[in-house]
Amino acid sequence: MLLIDLCIQGLIQGAIYALIALGLTLVYGLLRILHVAHAALFTLGGYVGVVVTNGSGSFLLALLTAMLIVGFVGMASYRVIYKPLLMRPPLIALIASIGVFIASEELFRLVFGAYGLSYTNPPLKGQVEILPGISLSHARILVVVLAVGLLSGMGWLAVHTRIGIAARATVVDPAMAASSGVNVETIRYASFFIGSAFAGAAGVMVSLLNNLVEPTMGAVPSYKALAIIVLGGLGSVRGALVASLALGVIEAFGTIYVGHILDRDSIAFAFLIMILMVRPQGLLARG
Amino acid sequence: MRHYIKSALSTGMLATGVLAAGVLVAGSMVMSASADTIKIGFNVPLTGFAAADGQSALHGAELGVGQVNAAGGINGEMLELVVYDDQASPKEAAPLAVKMITQDEIVAGVSGSYSGATRAAATIFAESKVPYISAYAIHPDITRAGDYVFRTSFMGEVQGRAGAKLIGEMLGKKRVAMVTLNNDFGKSLATGFKEQAGNFGIEIVAEYEYSIKDREFGPIISKIKADKPDAIYASGYFFTAGPMVSQIRAAGLDQPVVGQEGYDSQKFIEIAGGASEGVLITTSLDRDSSAAETKDFIKGFAAKAGYPADMVAASAHTAILVLADALKKSGSGDKAALRDAVAKTDLTASTGHISFNALGEVQKDVQVQIVKNGNWHHHSVISDAVLLAPPAQ
Question: N or C: lower Cβ tally within 10 Å for chain A?
Fold first, then answer.
């Protein structure tokens, strides 16, 4: 029973990783840039979630607002940070991204205070017994529902719509896609919007599970999401999803059974190194 | 540069805003403009992950300086706090210590920071023979840096021992699961707890470690559920313990949770919400104290900071008052005389009666606080001089 419980806890964590890592993978696929500032958008989602919920009393409204606002800020980050640097080596954009991420932590602190924010009346606290002896809070169940819903919605979009097909074409060969009439800029903005909105949703859910949003909430995702997309095979959406879930479960078991030797991050990176030794291209790399 | 601007910003929060502008324009102006004040250096994390504790500690220290100055200062001379943001990082704290000692010409320093930064600065203070008080950093090696280093709060081990007595003897719970924060704070608490566990009949059924970055304790809680302990001894800070306690209760575990001074903030109660009710901690500050010093502090802090007092604020406040008391007694600007005066401290401050042992470790009672109706309240006091004796060398 404990093993099943640990698997479930790991999958919930993995679902959060997946929501965060998706945007990073999309951006890498399109621009070959490591978008570290993505983690700041995750934090922003958390703040919007708490502020709107506390202000309006509606968690649903907060979740939607957070996704929308974070999505637009994500688009703005492309316009302001990355677009002017596209002609430069990717290292320049990476450094700019790290700079924006660090500055955003301090900005959150100045705007919202160093102590972080909490829900005055945390929603979704009820419990459901999903298996005998294992009950989960509504919030945890929502994490899974949201991740599955959003990610499969995105999957459907990628396969069945013109913009989805155009996006995939752009990832494979931007020049050819452009010459076939695909508006590459639109694809980039759309990808930033979707990826950032998902990170915003993840931020809201994490803020609810912890009942805390801190300026430094993005610190761990900022590098762990990078590990996930490397693990998945850079730029592979499916790989990032598999890697997210695998990492969530590995960390859950690792915390219990080797936690006194390695902390959660070390477990994640040890796993990353082991996989890369066997499959240097990542779990599900594109050819 | 970013760093200096931030230091200047924090200094600007003091009443000496004008001088802060001077720091930016020309460092040398500060010396001449404030030659008639007694300067106390204060390194504190105002940015980065520990900024919340740093902010509280700064409020506490400023309150202490304000109170001393309002009461006429040190034999007529005013105290001035020279504040630097160390980001709770040793690599920031060490050069700041040098700067405070050599450029700012402080008479003594106080650390409002965590152990890593405090250790790095303590070595430099000890070598330069300038008195230095660690307000709430708990690492055992801090006071071992030298004769000039003191600590006004409990070492981790001492508090861990108090935790064992609280759980094993006062609560009568024998099967305990430990959740340990894997930094110097959590580890030294765990050491003290385990050292005394046997003496109070405690069986440690399991110990789990987590890192300061963790806010998600699902797997650990699942395992504790399977362990079925009588009580949970969990180290952490309010920002880890808040999520942890709320997740523990959300998972349906109803065993007593015992923490320590890291929980000691109103923010812990805000994060954990209803789940915080009944949580016990060992700490330095008694919210329901009848002592005038403590009541004064609690009232003054809330008025100044706009939120209720916490342990780090009380500890920083205490450290400033200890220094002020020693400055009055030593009378001169002589640092060796000041050091001796600090060593002989016999003072009641906001965190209780303070005196130091030969190593510079504080000797005082441990306060046990409990969350009741959304506030910290008095539960009991542990005043066992033998159990709580800090190491003397």
Answer: C
Assigned CATH class of A2-278: mainly alpha
Closest CA to A23 of A253, A159, A221: A221
CA distance B215 to chain A (A): 6
Q: Tell me if B47 and A259 make a contact (CB, 8 A cut-off).
A: no
Chain A interface mutation, best of B9, B58, B271, B276, highest count of A Cβ atoms under 10 Å: B271
Write down the residue that tokens 């030294």 correspond to: B188
Q: Residue A224 and residue A70: Cα distance in Å, rounded?
A: 20
pLDDT by position in tens, chain A (length 287):
889 999 999 999 999 999 999 999 999 989 889 999 999 999 999 999 999 999 999 999 999 999 999 999 999 999 999 999 999 998 999 999 999 999 999 999 999 988 899 999 989 888 888 888 788 889 999 999 999 999 999 999 999 999 999 999 999 898 999 999 999 999 999 999 999 999 999 999 999 999 999 999 999 999 999 999 999 888 888 899 999 999 999 999 999 998 888 888 889 899 999 988 998 888 887 54
B211 vs A2, A127, A265: nearest CB? A265
Domain boundaries in chain A?
A: 2-278
**Tally of domains within chain B:** 2
Helices (H) and strands (E) in chain B, counts: 14, 14
Residue corresponding to tokens 């929308």 = A68
The residue of chain A with its CA nearest to that of B266 is A115
Please name which of A217, A221, A213, A276 lies closest in space to residue A244, comparing C-alpha atoms. A221
Q: In this structure, are B356 and B371 located in the same domain?
A: no
Residue B340 lies in a domain: yes
Measured CA to CA, the distance from residue A203 to residue A216 in angstroms comes to 12
Look up the domain containing B183 and give its range.
156-283+367-382
Which CATH number covers residue B13?
Answer: 3.40.50.2300
B12 and B147 inside one domain = yes
| Other CB atoms within 10 A of residue B389 CB | 13
